Amino acid sequence: MPHALLIKFPGTNCDLETSRALEAAGFSAEVLPVAHLEPTSLDRAKLIVFSGGFSYGDYVMSGRIAQLITKHKLGERLKQFVADGGYVLGICNGFQILTQLDLLPRGSLIHNNTGRFICRWAPLKKNGNTSPFLKALPDNFELPVAHAEGRFVGESGDAEKYIKDGHAALLYGKDINGSSAQIAGLQDDTGRVFGLMPHPERFIAKNTHYDPDWNGAEQGWGYYLFKGVAEAIAA
Ligand SMILES: NC(=O)CC[C@H](N)C(=O)O
């Protein structure tokens, strides 16, 4: 059974449902408070997860303090983990944290163009089919979003470049927060590092969707994201 390590910060609040989702997809899941994190904590893991929430109260900007502390605690270990074939998933606040850990293409998640926290179902679409995290999902699906700082921005021309080169693996089906090129999720060159603003862990049971029979899938769409990466790791 592959081992998943979820790193929890003060203010992380999606760790319980995320570890349940990981277990449903066949992982053994460990939630580790950042105070206990050391470079050797990564040794057993095949997947590192940064889950959703409000790490350090979203002070400075979402994810920023957690990035600094993670870098300080792990040094180069996280990069080495990926270079050795490990997988990293950042969900919502976890994606915000991942943006400055030098594991994903450049860009930031800033306040939604509405100026408000948004909490809703979001239509999503895959951009190509290179992400192991999205392999088990259809081209179009929905997941819940819940964020104030979910608007992806890059330097001039970067968002369009990420669409073309496939780094932008997941897009919104319509504009919900002002994200450049409607980017909802980004991956690295290997596809083993993936961050997304929507919450797959909130849609595991299909009856939590407003139309449970939509597309006739057995489970909620979020389940297939965790399943996809479990299958990639097993392959
Ligand atoms: N649910 C989340 O992880 C999102 C919270 C996030 N820190 C925000 O932008 O509001």
Automatic annotation (TrEMBL):
The protein's UniProt keywords, in alphabetical order, are: ATP-binding, Cytoplasm, Glutamine amidotransferase, Hydrolase, Ligase, Nucleotide-binding, Purine biosynthesis
> Which Pfam families does the UniProt record give?
GATase_5 (PF13507)
Give the E.C. number(s).
Answer: 6.3.5.3
What superkingdom does the record give?
Bacteria
Annotated transmembrane regions:
none
**Top-level class of the enzyme under EC nomenclature:** ligase
Question: Could you tell me one molecular function GO term of this UniProt entry?
Answer: hydrolase activity
Instruction: List, in alphabetical order, the GO biological process terms annotated in this UniProt record.
Output: 'de novo' IMP biosynthetic process
What name does the UniProt record give this protein?
A: Phosphoribosylformylglycinamidine synthase
